[in-house]
Amino acid sequence: MQSTQTKPNGPVAASFLAAGIGSLVLGILVVLNELGGDISKFLAFDKNYGLGSGVGPLSGKAILAVLAFVISWVVLHFMWRGKEVNFGRVFSLALILVAAGFILTFPPVFDIFAPKAA
Amino acid sequence: MQLSDRELWALIHGMGLGALFLLAFGGGIAGVWSLREKYVTTEGLAERTPRLLVGTTVMAIVAWLTVIVGTWIVYPWYRAAAPAGTTDLTKFPKALLVSSPDTAGWHNFGMEWKEHVAFLAPLLATAVAFATLYYGAQLVHRGEIRRAILVFFTLAFAAAGVAGLFGALITKAAPVA
User: Mean per-residue pLDDT for A1-27?
Assistant: First the structure.
C-alpha cells in the first residue's frame, strides 16, 4: 500500500498566487499605459533602459509583470515554505487575479481608459 | 523558395514554439487528469510521472521562449514606423493594417489583445510546471492541487490559443517579411 503522506502545499499555493499577481499587474499596466502621458513614457523600457529596441511600452509592461510574478513568488514561497495553507482559498484568490488579468488585457476594456480625441 | 530572416523568426515564434505549446496541451491535460489513484497502479504511476514532469517543464519553457521571441525579436519588425512619405507599407505590417479602416481592427483589436494576453500563458504554465515538479507522483493523492493544475493549464492554453489564432490571422493580413 502506497503512503498517502504528501508534502505541505504552501510552496505550490505560493506559485499559483504569484501567477495571479503577475497577471493582475500586467492588466493594470496595460490600463495605465492607455492613460498615456508619463506612465506610458516610463513603460518604454526599450528607450529608457535599452531593453529591446523597438518594442515600445510592451517592454515595460512585460518586464514589470514578470518581476511582480517572480518577486511575489519568492516572498510567498518563504512565507509558506513547510506550511499547509488553505489551498481552496488561495487558489480562488489566484483565479480572481488571473480573471482580472484576462479582463484588463481585453482591448474593449482597456480602451475605455484611453483619452478620447477632442 | 526561400525565407527571409524575419520570416524565419516569425515561423519559429508561431509555427515552431507557439504551435508546440498548443499541441502539447492535449497530452499534458490528459496526463494530469488521469493521475488518480483509481486509474493508475504503482507501476503505472512510476512509468508516467517522469513523462509528466518533463512535459510540463518543457511546456513552461516553450511558453517563455514563445513570448520572448515574439516580443523582443518579431514584434519590433511588426510595429516599426514607416518613414514619412513611404507609399509601399508591405515592410511595415502595423502601419499597413492601420492605414485602412477595413484592416485596422486586426491591429487595434487582434494585435492589441494578442501581445498582452500571450504573457499570461507562461505565468500560468510556470505555476503548473512547479506544482507538478514539487509533488511528482504524490499528485495522485492531492486532488485539489490536480484540479488547480487542470484549471491553470486550460487557462494557459486559452491565452496561448487567442495569441496563436490572432498571430496567424494577422500574419495572413500583413506578414512580417
Answer: 90
Question: Which pLDDT belongs to residue A115?
Answer: 83
- For chain A, the structural domain boundaries read 10-106
Asked if A63 has any chain B CB less than 8 Å from its own CB, the reply is no
pLDDT at A3: 59
Put simply, whether A106 touches B (Cβ < 8 Å) is yes
Dihedral angle of Cα A101, B72, B175, A23, to the nearest 10 degrees: -10
In chain A, which residue's Cα lies nearest the Cα of B128?
Answer: A16
Per-residue model confidence (pLDDT) at position A40: 92
Helix, strand and coil content of chain B, in percent to the nearest 5, comes to: 80, 0, 20
Q: Look at A97 and B33; give whichever has higher pLDDT.
A: A97
Q: Which run of H or of E encompasses A38?
A: helix A37-43
Identity (one letter) of the amino acid at B68?
Answer: I
Give the pLDDT of residue B147: 96
End-to-end CA distance of chain B: 14
Spatial contact of A115 and B127, defined as CB atoms under 8 Å apart: no
Its ipTM equals: 0.93
* Nearest residue to B93 (alpha-carbon basis) of B7, B8, B1: B7
- CA within 13 Å, CB half, B55: 18
Q: Distance from A17 to chain B by nearest Cα, in Å?
A: 9
Q: Is A82 helix (H, G, I), strand (E, B) or coil?
A: coil
Q: Could you tell me the pTM of the whole model?
A: 0.94
Q: What is the pLDDT of residue A45?
A: 94
Q: How far is CA A102 from CA A71, A95, B4, B135, in A?
A: 21, 10, 34, 28
Q: What share of chain B in percent tops pLDDT 70?
A: 100
Contact across the interface for A91 and B144, Cβ inside 8 Å: yes
- Determine contact: A82 vs chain B, CB below 8 A: no
Question: Are B141 and A4 within 8 A, CB to CB?
Answer: yes
